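Input/output pair, single chain:
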Amino acid sequence: MTPRISLLIASLHVLLYLVLTVRVVMHRNVHKIGIGTGGDESLSRKVRVHANFVEYVPLGLLLLALLELAAINTALLWTFGIALLVARVLHAIGLGGSAGYSFGRATGALLTFAVMLVMAAIGIGRFVAGAMVTA
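Output:
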């Protein structure tokens, strides 16, 4: 079985990752900041948005791919994958615009956590169900 859904969702996340990366690189080039953030608040937010993406997305995509390989319902896979992508876009927009509270930042973070929690619960449930059958 080829994990087609998670492949597409991961590919879309890579495109978002590249956008976030280019934002950091361009800011560094324009402002001649090589390492760190040079005290530049805007660059600090861009770096944090990029880092936050790197902290959460790989694990979310791994869970998505493993659930797809475990033959979880395709509607759920699409829902999880799209919700994770929407969450990361919202978070990037929210945190990219303000270091304080914003709808995008809060909603993006909560949606990311919720998607990952539900995927983890389904994964654990699938393991337990399988263990009971083989016992």
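The chain has a mean pLDDT of 94. Residues 103-134 form the longest helix (32 residues).
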